[in-house]
């Protein structure tokens, strides 16, 4: 199995359950990892997953405000599978910096791991 990942993608976005979060926004850190069968010809991008494409998917989804981070990671996962049907597994992890609920917390984290039967 070949793993392709982007780690520590940083976005400023407007996701959050509370109205203030949807107006003020927050800092987010995203990790995306996909797994595909090892290509016969590893020098051919057509047999792999272009990490530039993964970034474009993440950027597009992160621009659409959602109340729940669970929806954001779901949308990223679904878009990856649509664009790269050969993906056999994925892990998408989204961290919200200093969530606004009155406690001292570095990040809240939502992670979605998918295994596909191909």
What's the quick description here?
This protein has three helices and four strands, in the order βαβααββ.
Based on the model shown, name its key terms.
4 strands; 118 residues; 4-stranded antiparallel beta sheet; single chain; GTP Cyclohydrolase I, domain 2; alpha+beta; 28% helix
Q: Could you say which overall geometry the principal axes of the C-alpha atoms support?
A: elongated
Widest sheet: strand ordering: 1-2-3-4
Percent strand? 25-35%
What structural class do the secondary elements suggest?
alpha+beta
CATH class designation: Alpha Beta
CA radius of gyration is 15 Å
CATH topology category name: GTP Cyclohydrolase I, domain 2
Report the mean per-residue pLDDT as an integer.
94
Largest sheet composition? 4 strands, antiparallel
Poorly predicted spans: none
Distance between the termini: 13 Å
Q: Tell me roughly what share of residues is in helical segments.
A: 25-40%
Number of strands: 4
The CATH homologous superfamily name equals GTP cyclohydrolase I, C-terminal domain/NADPH-dependent 7-cyano-7-deazaguanine reductase, N-terminal domain
Multimeric state of these chains? Answer: single chain
Under the CATH scheme, the architecture is 2-Layer Sandwich
Number of domains: 1
Describe this structure in words.
With 118 residues, the chain is an alpha+beta fold. It has one domain (2-115): GTP cyclohydrolase I, C-terminal domain/NADPH-dependent 7-cyano-7-deazaguanine reductase, N-terminal domain (GTP Cyclohydrolase I, domain 2), CATH 3.30.1130.10. It contains 3 helices and 4 strands; from the N terminus they run E-H-E-H-H-E-E. It has helices at residues 19-24, 51-62, 69-83, and strands at residues 2-13, 26-36, 89-97, 107-115. It has a 4-stranded antiparallel sheet with strand order 1-2-3-4. Helix 2 (51-62) runs antiparallel to helix 3 (69-83). The longest helix has 15 residues, at 69-83. The protein is elongated, with a radius of gyration of 15 Å. The mean pLDDT is 94.
């Amino acid at each position: 199995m070949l793993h392709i990942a982007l780690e520590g993608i940083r976005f400023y976005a407007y996701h959050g359950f509370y109205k203030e979060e949807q107006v003020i926004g927050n800092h987010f850190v995203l990790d995306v990892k996909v797994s595909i069968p090892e290509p016969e010809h590893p020098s051919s991008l057509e047999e792999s997953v272009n990490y530039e494409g993964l970034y474009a998917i993440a950027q597009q989804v992160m621009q659409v405000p959602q109340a729940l981070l669970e929806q954001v990671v779901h949308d990223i996962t679904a878009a990856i599978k649509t664009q790269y049907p050969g993906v056999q597994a994925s892990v998408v992890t989204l961290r919200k910096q200093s969530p606004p609920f009155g406690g001292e917390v570095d990040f809240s984290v939502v992670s979605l791991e998918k295994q596909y039967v191909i």
